[in-house]
Amino acid sequence: MTLLKHNKYMKLALKEAAKALELGEFPVGCVIVFNGKVVASGSRLGTASPEKRPSEIDHAEIRALKSLEENINHHKNINHHNGKNMNHHDGSDNGRDMCIDNGSNIDREIINIIPEECIIYCTMEPCLMCFGAIILSGIKQIFYAFEDPMGGGTSCNLGELPILYRESGIKVVPYLFREESLKFFAQFFSRKNNFYWKNSFLEQYTLKEANYIIQASETDN
Ligand SMILES: [Zn+2]
Question: How many whole angstroms from 130 Cα to the centroid of ligand 1?
Answer without folding.
Answer: 4
